[in-house]
């Protein structure tokens, strides 16, 4: 039996300013750092010892994870960063103000772009060619993703890097993003495609999953 704790990063400057973010690499606000520290205290109170930390290649998640590891006095554990844990890529919506887009396209359309499983947002004309992804080959950076596409690029990471460690009995900590964690919750909780639009993950709110030795969920709890 092992435990997984998942955590969305603290408030970013884009969250504060209501901007579509996705793979844009934006920093935490002061409030976001406080949320990360508070989340760290909640995780510390569990007394859990983690075998590894998994996070994305985006600073809002990386910095949150550093703050949490310091709070739980486990800065020494292995830390893995993967583009597969990056936020869902918001395509051509990224950088745009959500309220302004809503005023332009209407509430129904923006809800579909933000919360449906299968709808792909308007795509970028070209990939950004961010050099941090060069080492993984040319097809890693998308021009935009549906939640379904993010789900399918996340799952290999779960299967190869997280699930085996849990099956070996080692607790795992995942610090990632709203939509990649919604995708993981969809997988773990068997949420139907149509129902995933109801699932929200708040900044800095740790969620704990306890598993049996075959990785069935025994208990889920928001800390
Ligand atoms: O990428 C973003 O803009 C946020 O991290 C998540 O935004 P959403 O709640 O609009 O999907």
Provide a compact summary of the structure:
With 223 residues, this protein is of the alpha/beta class. It contains seven helices and six strands; from the N terminus they run βααβαβαααβαββ.
Walk me through this protein's architecture.
Belongs to the phosphoglycerate mutase family. BPG-dependent PGAM subfamily. It catalyses: (2R)-2-phosphoglycerate = (2R)-3-phosphoglycerate. GO terms for molecular function: phosphoglycerate mutase activity. With 223 residues, the chain is of the alpha/beta class. It has one domain: Rossmann fold (3-Layer(aba) Sandwich), CATH 3.40.50. It is built from 7 helices and 6 strands. It has a 6-stranded mixed sheet with strand order 3-2-4-1-5-6. Strand 5 and strand 6 form a beta hairpin. The longest helix has 21 residues. The protein is globular. The structure holds 3-phosphoglyceric acid. 3-phosphoglyceric acid binds next to helix 7.
Bound molecules: 3-phosphoglyceric acid
Domain module tally: 1
Helix count equals 7
Intertermini distance: 19 Å
At the fourth level of CATH, the homologous superfamily is Phosphoglycerate mutase-like
CATH class: Alpha Beta
CATH topology: Rossmann fold
Average per-residue pLDDT, rounded, comes to 97
Q: Summarize the biggest pleated sheet.
A: 6 strands, mixed
Runs in which pLDDT lies below 50 for 5 or more consecutive residues are none
Radius of gyration, in Å, reads: 17 Å
The residue fraction in helices comes out at: 25-40%
**Broad shape:** globular
The CATH architecture can be named as 3-Layer(aba) Sandwich
- Strand arrangement in the largest pleated sheet: 3-2-4-1-5-6
Order of helices and strands: EHHEHEHHHEHEE
Strand content: 5-15%
Structural class: alpha/beta
How many DSSP-defined strands?
A: 6
